[in-house]
Amino acid sequence: MSTPRIFFLFTLLPILVVLAGGADSCEEPCIPDPNPTVSYRLDIVRILEDHGCIYWCHYDGKASGGINLSSYEDTMASPGAVVPCHPESSLLYTALLPGGAMEDNAADMTSNEVGLIWAWIKEGASDL
Predict the structure, then answer these.
(1) Rounded to whole angstroms, how far apart are CA atoms 36 and 122?
(2) pTM attached to this predicted model
(3) Span 70-99, pLDDT tens digits
């Protein structure tokens, strides 16, 4: 193979892989909000406790689906649970949406509570 042909293939290959869906989608980097309005400690943990997420399904002894919500550290360490700044990629949020794994439990949550989870993740998922 000639050098230009090899160069062309290596230049085109990453584009083809992305178009074929063989690589992770490139998400924008997370730049946490410098003045977040939602706190894990003051807002999110209360919602998770009030709806039994921590005590019934997602705790140290029973991390259903591999998601442990026992603490901020456990929540952030659970694969895919929270992708800071990207609620649409975070299982903690998407599971609550229609068709999501926790859709039935989300029915017990107010739209404000689901909105707070979305806002917390969108702001960078900080532990204030």
Answers:
(1) 9
(2) 0.74
(3) 899 999 999 999 999 999 999 999 998 888
Buried b (16+ CB within 10 A) or exposed e, 39-73: bbeebbbebbeebebbeebbbeeebeeebbbbebe
Residue 75, CA distances (Å) to 1, 40, 126 in order:
51, 10, 12
* Max Cα–Cα distance, the chain, nearest Å: 66
Amino acid of residue 68: N
Quick one: tokens of 114?
């689901």
Residues 3, 68: Cα–Cα separation, whole Å: 52
Torsion (CA) 35, 90, 54, 70 in degrees, nearest 10: -70
